[in-house]
Design goal:
The protein has 162 residues and is of the alpha/beta class. The protein contains 4 helices and 5 strands, in the order αβααβββαβ. The protein has a domain at 74-150: Ribosomal Protein L15, Chain: K, domain 2, CATH 3.100.10.10. The chain is 18% helix and 11% strand.
Length: 162
């Protein structure tokens, strides 16, 4: 095999259509662009333009806002914690913190803290030290003989009112 013998697989690429080369080509005259007007010309990008009328996306009212102070928690279910304990990745005798959950592979990357959700069943008596928990999760943990310590928000996160 020589360099001048290398070529692509047959049918892998199509030749460019040569438009506007006479009426007999089938792609002459308007060149597949329809007839006349702004869109038949080159360099036209008018997505959302309504001919000077106020576009729909500007006629509709604005709604909602993005809260820049909102916390983004890792949500962990009780069932997921029990699975990690059963697999031996999480030690039920030590307090379960964000770092312990990360090492066990329950949480991939730590965000603003962990919030425990009451989905699934917890059999082991586990002490949690986390940022938040739902009522059903706290009830389920205490029923299993464990405890939930909700950590206070960091002082740097709070804004001083005084």
């Amino acid at each position: 095999m020589k360099l001048n013998e290398i070529n692509d697989n047959p049918g892998s690429s199509k030749d460019r259509m040569r438009v506007g080369r006479g009426i007999g080509s089938g792609k002459g005259k308007t060149g597949g662009r329809g007839v006349k007007g702004q869109k038949s010309r080159t360099g036209v990008a008018i997505k959302g333009f309504e001919g000077g009328q106020m576009p729909l996306h500007r006629r509709l009212p604005k709604r909602g806002f993005n809260n820049i102070f909102a916390k983004d928690y890792n949500e962990v279910s009780l069932g997921r914690v029990q699975t990690a304990i059963d697999a031996g990745k999480l030690d039920a005798t030590k307090p379960v913190t964000v770092e312990a959950l990360k090492e066990a592979g329950v949480v991939r990357r730590v965000q603003d803290g962990v919030r425990l959700l009451g989905v699934g069943e917890l059999k082991a008596a586990v002490a949690f030290e986390i940022a938040g928990a739902s009522k059903s999760a706290i009830e389920a943990v205490e029923k299993a003989g464990g405890s939930v310590k909700v950590l206070a928000a960091k002082a740097s996160d709070k804004t001083d009112a005084a």
